[in-house]
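fwd from M.: "can u put these together and see what the complex looks like"

so here's what she sent:
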Amino acid sequence: MASALVRRARGSAAAAPALWAAARGIASVGSDIVSAAPGVSLQKARSWDEGVATKFSTTPLKDIFHGKKVVIFGLPGAYTGVCSQAHVPSYKNNIDKLKEKGIDSVICVSINDPYVLNGWAEKLQAKDAIEFYGDFDGSFHKNLDLEIDLSAALLGHRSHRWSAFVDNGKIKALNVEKAPSEFKVSGAEVILDQI
Amino acid sequence: MAPIGVGDTLPDGQLGWFDADDKLQQVSIHGLAAGKKVVLFGVPGAFTPTCSNQHVPGFVNQAEQLKAKGVDEILLVSVNDPFVMKAWAKTYPENKHVKFLADGLGTYTKALGLELDLSEKGLGIRSRRFALLADNLKVTVANIEEGGQFTISGAEEILKAL
């Protein structure tokens, strides 16, 4: 089974990149992102007051993906190095190019609560360009097999660093870094060529 | 685990902390509290209103008075990762004494018996709002809130008890 191969491959430091990339589990090019994570919803980044006002409502995946061209990227954690200094800025600075190519929304998702995410998005002044969603219980990333255990860094279960181009729910391109500290394939420049 | 109370011994635990030189450390509660008078207070979440606007400022602003009454350490614990705690601490530039400690996986909060399920608000398992005073690891004051209130867990109540 593909996922068993992925688990073995992840365990060894010298895992064959091609095998690893091919056996990505459930999230892969051609699959439907909404069906891959049934019943999953995300929490839009917001202040607590906004949460109260919307009765802490969640956003089902189909509302985000159906009928839209979406570029979505995931990262290990708000307020951490590569995420703050390279990953988010890459999308913020390329937003015009992405919109020119017909992208309806650019989404950033991470396993953080929506309030921390909101504070971070405001600090990065990125809320105009990017929509931030919290996968607060990790179910979105678990379903897509994009979860990684960063307990050693006191972060717990988090997301890999990744990006995808999703057209009406179908994954057209998927890029996952080999290690969360790397930032080679999951930036805006790479995905602009894949749209 | 029953919630910690007066007369109990403060359990040991490892928490994450970015120190004054911005290095990520794992600190032990017993290491910080043995042989000392410490205030340990907990909040449900960084960047949430009552925590940010009332609970934490109370301890930041009354830290000198607490120290004058013999408190050696003022420790803040929340179920957040150390990066988030560091960023949150930076929003209090006037803070000199409160240490913002990260109980990233909630282990210490569970050891205190003070966990609270806030999943429906998108927060997951967090800590109840509380403030404890411990003297050489013996808990002498335990003010634990019900729900999201902020009535007895502030700095004033601890000051009154000292």
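replying to her w this: Residues 81-93 of chain A form the longest helix (13 residues).
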